[in-house]
Write a structure and sequence with these properties.
The complex is a heterodimer of chains A (138) and B (137).
Chain A: H1 5-15, H2 19-38, H3 42-45, H4 47-52, H5 55-75, H6 80-103, H7 109-124, H8 131-134
Helix pairs in contact in A: 2-5, 5-6, 6-7
Chain B: H1 4-22, H2 26-46, H3 48-55, H4 63-82, H5 87-110, H6 117-133
The chains are: A mainly alpha (138), B mainly alpha (137).
Chain lengths: 138, 137
């Protein structure tokens, strides 16, 4: 059966396996942590971000989110605590960073895309695994 | 008798390796594609000064090129995901991503624009995986 590209795209978005995406998103989060900690001019150029949290607090939030993603990927655990950490915390952290970056006029780039991916993962969380896998959850 | 902690960590390492080698790359390619289209479009139409800041640190100072490059790559990612990673186009796309984004990441790191380097590295890794998957699935 040949399907239109739009239908194939929707099929990938709604039914595609999220494991590799979450793995890469956790790597991006760890990269973001290292950037926030290593870049000494972060506080200087991100005035709005500093109104929300200090660089160390941002780094801690992204670190917890990335660890939760990696933990969920390797253990295939599926529960409401991980839903809060993988999904809700990710949306909160990446959206806050995207808003702050946009307000600081340093560009709408990477963190806005990160917020988009985090929101997608939150929406797709109930379908991360097949029903067979759900029996491994807590 | 083997240590249960070591057994568990071995199991997790095996699982990670399996995910990297066999995991479904379609969703990664689709979301990366959408992300690049959004970034490129916003850069060209809404926030061109950001592209100017970005481009002036590179060898050719053509902001519009980076916007078009991003949108084009975004559509290419969507296309290879929909077509299930055909060999030839994947090889081209992956090689382009790895070479161009390695150059961008190095240039950014040298110019101390560290913010995007982590995501540039991600594009490089995904490009390498697309080369690896070309023609497989």
């Amino acid at each position: 059966v040949t399907r239109s590209p739009i239908k194939r795209l929707m099929n990938v978005l709604l039914c595609g396996e999220t494991v590799l995406l979450r793995f890469f998103f956790s790597l991006a989060g760890f990269g973001w942590v290292s950037w926030v900690l290593v870049d000494v001019s972060f506080a200087e150029f991100h005035e709005h971000a500093m109104k929300l949290a200090t660089p160390n607090q941002f780094a801690m939030i992204f670190f917890i989110h990335s660890c939760a993603l990696l933990y969920g990927v390797v253990t295939q655990k599926y529960n409401r605590w991980l839903l809060m950490l993988e999904g809700a915390l990710g949306v909160f952290a990446w959206s806050a960073m995207a808003w702050a970056e946009t307000m600081d006029q340093t560009g709408i780039g990477p963190s806005a895309v990160g917020a988009l991916v985090a929101f997608f993962l939150l929406v797709r969380y109930p379908t991360h695994y097949t029903p067979k896998d759900e029996i491994h959850g807590d | 008798m083997s240590n249960p902690h070591r057994r568990a960590s071995d199991q997790y390492r095996t699982e990670l390796a399996r995910i990297l080698i066999d995991g479904d790359l379609s969703l990664v390619a689709v979301l990366l594609g959408f992300g690049m289209i959004v970034w490129g479009s916003i850069g060209i139409f809404l926030n061109p000064q950001d592209l100017f800041v970005f481009a002036k640190d590179f060898a050719f100072q053509m902001p519009i090129f980076w916007g078009i490059n991003s949108i084009g790559l975004g559509f290419a990612f969507l296309w290879v995901a929909v077509k299930k990673f055909p060999a030839g186009p994947c090889l081209l796309l992956g090689t382009y991503c790895v070479t161009v984004y390695t150059w961008i990441a190095v240039s950014r790191a040298v110019s101390s624009i560290t913010s995007g380097v982590t995501l540039n590295l991600l594009v490089i890794v995904v490009g390498a995986l697309i080369i690896h998957r070309s023609g497989h699935k």
